[in-house]
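Note to self: keep these together.
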Amino acid sequence: MVSRNFKNVLVVSIGFLSLFTAYGGLQSLQSSLNAEDGMGVASLSVIYGAIIVSSMFLPPIMIKNLGCKWTIVAGMACYVSYSVGNLYPGWYTLMPTSVILGLGGSPLWSAKCTYLTISGNVQAAKEGKKGSDVINQYFGIFFFIFQSSAVWGNLMSSLIFGQDTNIADIPYEQLQLCGAADCGLVVNASGTAPVRPAQSLVWTLVGCYIGVGVLAMIIVAVFLDNIDHEQTSQFRENREPFCQTFLATFRLLKDWRLVTLIPLTMYSGFEQSFLSGEYTKNYVTCALGIHYVGFVMMCFGASNSLCSFLFGRLARYTGRAALIFLAALANFSCIIALLFWKPHPDQLAVFFVFPALWGMADAIWQTQTNAIYGILFPREKEAAFANYRMWESLGFVIAFAYSTFLCLEYKLYILLAVLVLTVVTYPIVEYYERKNPTPPVDEGTYVNHKEDLEIDDSKIINQTQM
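Structure:
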């Protein structure tokens, strides 16, 4: 029998799958589709800049007032607005919708992480299991389903753009500028930017993305249990001082463990932005054409999805540290190879090897970093995941900010430097946690695990953070 908590994990996962089928596909295409004056990359930079701002105060306020469920629905609406802005891309449409998406992004992800953490702890208490094991399993399931969004979103873009009659062979002169040799000056033989797909095809694709985004909102609004509604009602009746809620994200920075995790968290932003912004533009679009971006990113999504499920279960046997060092090794190898590889259409298989390895590594970064935040800060979940989103977004912002004026070679060196810093700082937190385990929230706070599995979860959650 499927538990209510597991059902809720599936609903959240399917909702995010649908939403990020749209956003993930658009993000992969921005550096190529809206390349004029760096507008696409600039919009991504604005998105993550706004996420940083929203992370400072919005997640605790929204989650405690609206609850996790309705915070997720509101955040999804912000993402859909960005898809609408891409119908007629321009500075006057992309920048405002980028700000809206960014403001909703941090509450969305913080609410999702809080929801999964609460669900994991509740289920662990019911079954008499270790909370961290169930949380790891739930995050693994979530990312297994969620990361497959890269497959479907990019499949849509490749199938639709593949109908373009203007697809042409890449000239030799352009191939010489692909890869690490590029300094942001990729042009074709006529001296113009790579050919943009027909506008009718762009409208078709964006229209599909808007549709699946709205579907995501409907799925969550209708099928997700409002597990913390009593808690939010009590909060609204007995409000904490606004200043206390506003500063919750920053107060957690007093904990040295969170500060030490910042390089790891920022690296997550750097590595994701590199693949979606630099690899797609300077390797795939440059050497193969924009219609191949979707197929290559599908490979990333499939690898990420399968490995998320695998590592979410494997973590209980290997521990987090072993998996994170495996991810670091995979990324290190890819970065070194990308520095020397000269992309060419004749090496088609190689274009898929890098995103496959990158997807495996990203699956570890995502599942294990989310899990460690939930495990280290069980009583400050909203503020902890807000910090996670804030520092990850700072990595995105920095990477997208220098995207238009640094040579790709230097971008790879920066990525490598942040990775090395991560490998140095992360073990400190892991070692301390192993020697001084963070006490979990008292089992009795959730539910006596001997009670019937059908107990009303809303009553359970009413006690989760007393």
